[in-house]
Design a protein that fits this description.
The structure is a single chain. This protein is mainly α. It has three domains: 1-61; 64-113 and 273-407, no CATH class; 120-272, no CATH class. It has helices at 10-31, 38-57, 66-84, 88-113, 119-141, 143-151, 163-183, 187-206, 210-228, 233-251, 257-264, 274-292, 303-307, 316-333, 336-349, 353-367, 378-406; strands at 5-6, 59-61. It has a two-stranded antiparallel ribbon with strand order 1-2. Helix 3 (66-84) crosses helix 14 (316-333), helix 7 packs antiparallel against helix 8 (187-206) and helix 7 (163-183) runs parallel beside helix 9. The two termini are 18 Å apart.
Length: 407
């Protein structure tokens, strides 16, 4: 194992690949779901793929680490599961689409295993995507219409993309903005970032997405705890308490009545949201299917075909188990062990603070697997590729240090 080594000709190509990567993240978040501009998003992705192919052709050596091979094992298993799937055509059709995500993961991994790549480029792309989505929302709706819609109990974002997706674009941007706020020393820059936290949070709340709300809450609390640690427990408690109180009073505003109602439904047995009832039903159906074929599952993406619902189970844990069984479940989540170990060590113990934010995002993906199917999600495979590459770079560095020590 080792770092990617590239020829001198590859230097400018590396920068081009990083730039195209950022454009892909931003375009996919902002216009990726709009059929009128879908060709732009696809075109940028194709340009990124071609640039990465050129970059790889200039490489003298390309090494893959153990984390990559763990993930590769899951990818192969999903393909093989089409063979024993109850509905092979449904499995094969979905797997053809899934292959594009696997290729995207491969290029993300190779790009960020390169020493030229900087984690901040990825974080900046998430931040800018939030800004782009805010401008698009204002253009499509208008500020007055957004306020009127919220007062009328409407969820904002459906005219652009799915409301949950709309909200989570802002949630990720808000978490990154908050991280930048606590890491910057200049007062004017800090004011700018905290202002963006407020703007992103308000747009996220306007979507009425419970996942977006919880993502911001978990993200900000996670950053507070990990950044301050045991040495500043009182500061962590006070800042976290203040954040919760501020959010509570924001939700009491009339324009956020829809979000408030949906959040309160999480804690009420008498006022359960209809979407939660549907998800609970899907989980129960998934558990019955898992009992039938616990080891290798029913085949890739077969939940919708078997149940007749025509969609996935809206729960990553059950979707993986239904599709590939316990074997696939272990293969999917096993790579998180070296990944979490790497970002925890570098973020918490070595104080490489960008890794702290990656750790928070990794925890969010793990926790939110209960409410969303991540392994069909493009953004998940982008993040997975970035963080898997960093984990393997850390393992490579450790092995090199051990070799140097022996010499």
């Amino acid at each position: 194992m080792g770092y990617i080594k590239e020829s001198n000709a590859g230097f400018s190509i590396s920068k081009l690949c990083i730039f195209l990567f950022q454009l892909c993240i931003i375009a996919d978040a902002v216009i990726g779901f709009d059929p009128r501009y879908y060709v732009i998003s696809k075109g940028l992705m194709l340009a990124f793929f071609l640039a990465m192919i050129v970059k790889l052709l200039n490489e003298r050596e390309v090494y893959f680490g153990s984390t990559f091979y763990m993930i590769l094992a899951f990818m192969i298993l999903t393909g093989l599961s089409c063979i024993w799937a109850k509905y092979p055509s449904a499995a094969a059709s979905r797997f053809a689409t899934q292959l594009q995500l696997y290729v995207l993961f491969l290029f993300m991994y190779l790009l960020f295993k390169d020493e030229e790549s900087d984690i901040k480029k990825y974080l900046d792309a998430l931040y800018i995507a939030g800004i782009g989505m805010a401008f698009l929302a204002l253009y499509r709706y208008g500020l007055f219409s957004i306020i009127q819609g919220l007062r009328a109990g409407q969820r904002i974002g459906g005219a652009i993309t799915n409301e949950n997706v709309f909200g989570m674009v802002f949630s990720k941007a808000a978490i990154v903005a908050y991280y930048y706020y606590i890491r910057k020393n200049e007062s004017t820059i800090r004011i700018h970032h905290i202002l963006m936290v407020v703007i992103f949070t308000l747009f996220a709340f306007s979507s009425g997405s419970k996942k977006a709300f919880l993502m911001i809450l978990v993200g900000i609390l996670g950053i507070n705890i990990l950044e301050n640690g045991n040495s500043k427990k009182i500061k962590v408690l006070i800042s976290s308490f203040v954040a919760i109180i501020v959010v509570y009073f924001i939700l009491q505003m009339s324009i956020f009545a829809t979000m408030n109602k949906r959040i309160m439904s999480l804690f009420s047995e008498n006022n359960v949201d209809s979407s939660d009832l549907v998800r609970a039903k899907m989980i129960n159906m998934s558990l019955e299917l898992i009992k039938e074929r616990p080891l290798f599952g029913h085949g890739f993406a077969n939940f919708g075909a078997i149940t007749g619902l025509g969609t996935y189970s809206h729960n990553n844990l059950t979707e993986v188990l239904v599709s590939t069984g316990v074997v696939g479940f272990v293969a999917f989540y096993l790579p998180f062990i070296p990944i979490i170990r790497c970002v925890w060590k570098k973020g918490v113990f070595e104080h490489q603070y960008q890794y702290t934010l990656l750790l928070v995002l990794a925890i969010i993906y793990l926790v939110f697997g209960y409410a969303m199917v991540e392994y069909y999600d493009k953004e998940y495979w982008v993040f997975f590729g970035v963080i898997a590459a960093l984990a393997d770079k850390d393992l490579d560095a450790k092995e090199n240090r051990q070799i140097d020590g022996k010499i």
